[in-house]
Structures are given as structure tokens and as C-alpha cells.
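Priority: medium. Attachment 1 of 2:
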């Protein structure tokens, strides 16, 4: 195999671009982002043209192999279209923080706001955080309403005790959309905020968003990002919870502000503020799809009301914390997105949308991504076991000269545009994992888009850990087929392939697929929850027994204390009293572990006031549990290897000689 200068020209262009041009570009300037995205699209187009004219048209083999080659190419074209639309979205970036600063410094009135907390079957441990947080919003003119679609008497009493409004309806039609519409019919605020039952608003949530409505009469919705104080199943099940951002960070921190630059931001169901007048103009929250949030945006666009995106962390909530909950949530999003193809308010049939808006709002990704990921796994298996080529093989040198530059350019562009929220193999593996459950949803939704009931994502005490044996079985079979195909073709007397030119390339492809399938297998098993409540690093000084100590981390149920006594300060099972900043009085705590420098314990007999103050302190914006950027590759690999070899995770307190205990 030899390479001449001509075969390396694309690689030279890419090297010059990324080493010399890109370092001088700004990620926040639209013109600079456009340079990167256009360059990436051109490299992809160059590859696609080569694929068609050199590896598809010239093929003269069997009709079956020819049909397979054309099918694989069509899937690649669909994937390329999706990538191009992604690049189009990412070519702009809109930050509205300075705008929010202006509105907050010179407010133009304080319109009344109804804060809606729709709920169906969430337990107290989830709801109390949202209700307490909403009560303490730093805004002069608002009312909190809990919209109970489950008719629970205990929740009505809880709302009475908390001093917030309670609304229930007798008919439970149209799920969340119907619940919101009923609440709108019995309230009167000029604006209304929507907080899902597991999202806690920061104290400045309304102060940062309301000004957009008072200064811009054409704004119908202000959407803010969804951040999470717990770890999602991907982070937990791969031991990546300290080195890998949550799975939704790419969208909320990367894509959403870019969509806003194209006037294509959309409501995401929670953490949003909406103009009542605008919703009344469209006849209420749309009920024709289970993704009422997206349809609300589209209906408002038809009435010339904009949705804008303020990319600031103004709330935090619970991510799905089990594989089961993960797929209930993603399946609902997928089915609702596909329903938008069929409803009159959807992007294909709505009257007043521009062509660009129709393109950017069409949820094609829900259909194309599962299919492309399935083909990604199937191509090597089909080749290794049947000999069917996925393309007309020219030469290894030519293949590398076109495909390798395309793959490298896409990977570099994702890293640059997504701001360290993407690692190629692992991110793709997570997509492959999702594909196993979402592809059946796609097929069933295309055949019968309506009729499936709205399913609430189980979280908190309502969630249960387990294993997804369905995905495990299918992924294991594909893993065995891939690895077995490699082995059988390495043994001459058992070899299936008659022509081996494509085999080295297939070997590399198969190895990547094996790695991704192993990652899928690991995600299938929920890891045990180490603690009942989420802990936050606080590092705050306080007093205990006339000693100055430091609260290192704190949860609603317990804390860890650092001291400088250089001895075991207190024995296990001792009940002590400690002061916590911003919490009234002293808090009783039973010590569960202790050593020479630290002790930790579980709170006992918290008063209702103390529990509320503790929740407000922890969850309304002061503390942050998130992983914002991907760690070094070595750290990611180390975490994956620990997971692969079954080595249990060690909580941070074990580093200090304290055994883990859920408190």
C-alpha cells in the first residue's frame, strides 16, 4: 500500500485548517463558526461524491450485493443530511445574558406570574424540593400552584401546610397539556412558569426571565436549560459520574443556544416562562401530541410569537436515574416527535413557517439516527458472514484518503463546536445503546403514531433499579456475531470470505463496534445508589461543641464534617448537635462514621422548618453538582476499565478512611 501526494492532499488541507486556521477562530462569533461548519460540510460532500462515483456506480457484482451497496449508501446520504442540518444549527450562537442583565437592572413593571408544578404520581421526596424552591423565588408578584392530576389527599394537605395553591381536576384528559389548560382556566397571572415536579427553581429564576416579556411583546416563551443535580444512568452505569457530563448537556448547553440564533428555539416542557395572552391566542396548550411543548412553540410561531432561549442555570432537577426511566422518557420524546409529522400544527403542515423553520423543526433525527446506528453495527456482520461488500472496493489507500479525512473532520468539528461535551466512540456507543429501544418506538410510531398513553418518567423513590435484559441479549448476540465473524475468517479452513481485500478495513470497523457493544452491555445494569439523597460540596465553616469545623458536603439527610483535632472527635452512634448556615437552630445528627480528621452522620428529627430551609439552601442555585466538561481521555478510560473489570466504586469519603453508608 502506497500513498502519493495526490492521495494525501485532503489530509494536508485538514491539517493546515485545524492546526493553523482554527486556533485563531472564536467559538462565539457566527462568522467563525460558519467557517468551521462549511469546511466540515465540504469535506463530507467530497467523501459522499467519491462514495457514489467510485464505490457505488462502478459495482457490477450480484444483484443482491448491488442492492445492499445502494441501501448502505442511501443510509449514508440520510446521515449526511442530518449532519449538515446539525452543522447549520451550530453555525450560529446566541447568548442572551447581557440582554437579561439590561432587563433586570431597569425593570419595566412586575407582571403577575403563576408558577405551575404539574404532577401525577411523584412521591413526597421529589415534590417537596420543587414546592419549597418555588415558594422562595426572589420575585414580588407570583403565586405557586401544584397541579395534581393524581387526586392525592395527602398532597392537598401538604400544599395547605406549605401555603401554596392546589388545583385538581375531575377529568384527566390529555395528560400534562390538559392539566396545564385546566390550571389556566382557573388562574389569571399575566405570565405562567412551568416547573416539572422534579425541578427546583433557583431564587433568581423569574428575575432573569420576566424582563424579556415586558420589553418584547412578540416573545411568547422564554426557555431556560435543564440542569441536573443527580447522575443519569449512562454516567452512573459506566462509572463516568465524575468525568463525563450528563447526556443532555450537548443539547442544552450546545445546540439550544445555537437554535436560538436561527429563531428556532423551542419550549422543552419545564423551566420555561410563557405569556398567557399568547397561549390564549392559539386556543390553549396543544393536545394533539404527547410533546405539547414543541407544538406550543410551533403554534406560537404561527401567531408571530417567538420562543427565546436564555442559557443560564436557573433551575436544577432530577435526571432519569435508571435505565427503565431513561427509556420511558426518551421513548415519549421519540413518539411525540414523530407525531409532529402528522398533526396540522406540525412543521410539515403549519401555514406560516418559513422553509428554514420547517427544516429545523422537523424531527427527522428521531427516525434517521436509530436506523443509521443499526446499519453501523450490521455492515461488518453482513460482510463477515455472507461476503456481501458494503461498497465497490477500489484500494485501501483510496478508501483511507477519503473516509479517514471525513471522520477526522467530523470528530474535530464536534469537539470544537460542542465544547468538550462529545467523545466520538463513547458518544456513539451511547447512541447505539439508545437505538436498541428507540428503533421499535420509531417503527410503531410511524405505523400507528397515536394511541399510546403519556407515561411519566419514574424518579426518586418512585424509580427502581434493575437490568435491561432485552438490550443485553440483542447487544450480546451482535457482539458474538461480530467477534465470531472476525475469528472465523482468520482461520483459512473455515473462512467465509472469498476475497480478502476489504477484510483489514472490516477488521478495524468491527473492533470499534465490539468496543461500543461492550459499552452498551455495561450500561444495561443499573449500579446501586450509594446515597438516598444527593450530596453537595459546600465547604462552609460552622461550630460544633465550641470547636470551629468545616461542613465538607451536605445533603437533606446528612453531612460530613472536617475538624483539626487530630483525634477521633466523636464515637459512632453518638447523637450530637450542629449548626448549619442558613438553617434555623441546631440540627441533631447521629454519627455513622468517624476518624482522626472527619466524621459523618445522619440527621435526626428535623423540624418541618429546618427541612424546608435545608432544601432551599441546597437546591435553589448556590451549589452545583454537575460535570460541565469532559475530563481527560485517560480518566475516562480508567473509569471504563474499572467498570469492565467489576471493581466497585469507592465514594469520596472512603478516601478519608470512612466507610460508605447511605444517609
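Attachment 2 of 2:
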Amino acid at each position: 500500500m502506497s500513498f502519493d501526494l495526490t492521495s494525501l492532499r485532503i489530509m494536508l488541507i485538514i491539517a493546515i485548517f485545524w492546526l493553523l486556521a482554527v486556533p485563531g477562530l472564536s467559538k462565539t462569533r457566527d462568522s467563525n463558526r460558519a467557517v468551521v461548519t462549511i469546511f466540515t460540510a465540504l469535506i463530507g460532500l467530497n467523501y459522499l461524491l467519491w462514495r457514489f462515483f467510485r464505490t457505488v456506480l462502478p459495482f457490477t457484482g450480484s444483484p443482491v450485493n448491488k442492492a445492499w451497496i445502494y441501501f448502505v449508501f442511501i443510509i449514508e446520504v440520510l446521515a449526511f443530511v442530518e449532519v449538515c442540518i446539525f452543522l447549520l444549527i451550530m453555525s450560529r450562537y446566541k447568548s442572551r445574558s447581557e440582554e437579561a442583565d439590561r432587563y433586570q437592572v431597569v425593570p419595566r413593571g412586575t407582571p403577575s406570574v403563576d408558577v405551575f408544578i404539574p404532577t401525577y404520581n411523584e412521591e413526597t421526596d421529589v415534590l417537596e424540593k420543587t414546592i419549597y424552591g418555588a415558594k422562595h423565588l426572589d420575585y414580588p408578584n407570583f403565586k405557586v400552584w401544584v397541579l395534581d392530576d393524581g387526586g392525592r389527599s395527602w398532597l392537598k394537605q401538604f400544599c395547605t401546610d406549605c401555603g401554596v395553591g392546589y388545583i385538581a381536576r375531575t377529568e384527566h384528559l390529555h395528560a400534562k397539556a390538559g392539566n396545564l389548560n385546566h390550571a389556566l382556566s382557573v388562574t389569571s397571572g399575566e405570565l405562567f412558569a412551568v416547573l416539572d415536579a422534579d425541578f427546583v427553581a433557583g431564587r433568581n429564576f423569574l428575575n432573569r426571565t420576566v424582563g424579556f416579556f415586558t420589553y418584547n411583546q412578540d416573545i411568547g416563551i422564554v426557555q431556560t436549560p435543564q440542569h441536573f443535580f443527580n447522575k443519569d444512568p449512562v454516567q452512573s452505569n459506566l462509572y463516568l459520574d465524575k468525568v463525563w457530563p450528563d447526556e443532555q448537556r450537548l443539547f442544552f448547553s450546545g445546540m439550544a443556544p445555537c437554535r436560538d440564533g436561527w429563531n428556532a428555539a423551542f419550549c422543552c416542557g419545564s423551566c420555561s416562562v410563557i405569556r398567557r395572552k399568547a397561549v390564549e391566542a392559539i386556543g390553549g396548550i396543544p393536545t394533539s401530541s404527547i410533546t405539547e411543548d414543541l407544538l406550543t412553540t410551533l403554534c406560537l410561531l404561527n401567531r408571530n410569537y417567538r420562543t427565546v432561549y436564555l442559557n443560564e442555570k436557573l433551575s436544577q432537577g432530577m435526571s432519569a436515574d435508571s435505565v427503565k426511566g431513561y427509556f420511558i422518557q426518551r421513548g415519549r420524546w421519540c413518539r411525540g416527535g414523530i407525531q409532529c409529522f402528522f398533526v396540522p400544527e406540525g412543521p410539515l403542515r403549519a401555514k406560516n413557517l418559513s422553509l428554514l423553520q420547517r427544516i429545523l423543526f422537523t424531527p427527522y433525527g428521531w427516525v434517521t439516527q436509530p436506523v443509521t446506528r443499526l446499519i453501523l453495527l450490521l455492515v461488518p456482520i453482513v460482510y463477515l458472514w455472507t461476503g456481501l461488500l458494503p461498497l465497490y472496493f477500489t484500494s485501501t489507500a483510496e478508501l483511507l484518503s477519503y473516509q479517514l479525512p471525513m471522520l477526522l473532520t467530523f470528530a474535530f468539528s464536534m469537539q470544537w463546536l460542542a465544547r468538550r461535551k462529545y467523545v466520538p466512540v463513547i458518544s456513539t456507543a451511547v447512541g447505539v445503546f439508545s437505538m436498541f429501544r428507540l428503533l421499535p418506538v420509531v417503527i410503531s410510531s410511524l405505523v400507528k403514531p397515536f394511541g399510546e398513553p403519556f407515561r411519566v418518567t419514574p424518579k426518586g423513590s418512585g424509580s427502581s433499579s434493575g437490568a435491561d435484559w432485552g438490550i443485553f441479549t440483542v447487544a450480546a448476540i451482535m457482539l458474538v456475531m461480530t467477534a465470531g465473524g472476525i475469528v472465523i475468517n482468520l482461520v483459512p479452513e473455515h473462512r467465509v470470505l472469498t476475497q480478502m481485500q476489504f477484510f483489514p478495513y472490516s477488521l478495524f470497523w468491527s473492533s470499534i463496534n465490539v468496543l461500543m457493544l461492550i459499552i452498551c452491555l455495561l450500561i444495561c445494569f443499573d449500579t446501586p445508589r450509594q446515597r438516598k439523597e444527593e450530596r453537595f460540596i459546600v465547604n462552609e465553616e460552622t461550630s460544633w461543641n465550641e470547636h470551629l469545623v468545616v461542613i465538607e458536603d451536605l445533603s437533606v439527610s446528612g453531612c460530613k464534617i472536617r475538624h483539626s483535632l487530630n483525634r477521633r472527635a466523636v464515637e459512632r452512634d453518638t447523637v450530637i448537635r450542629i449548626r448549619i448556615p442558613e438553617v434555623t437552630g441546631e440540627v441533631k445528627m447521629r454519627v455513622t462514621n468517624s476518624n482522626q480528621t472527619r466524621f459523618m452522620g445522619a440527621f435526626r428529627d428535623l423540624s418541618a422548618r429546618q427541612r424546608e430551609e435545608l432544601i432551599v439552601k441546597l437546591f435553589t442555585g448556590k451549589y452545583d453538582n454537575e460535570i460541565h466538561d469532559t475530563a481527560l481521555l485517560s480518566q475516562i478510560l480508567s473509569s471504563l476499565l474499572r467498570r469492565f473489570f467489576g471493581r466497585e466504586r469507592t465514594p469520596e469519603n472512603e478516601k478519608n478512611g470512612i466507610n460508605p453508608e447511605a444517609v
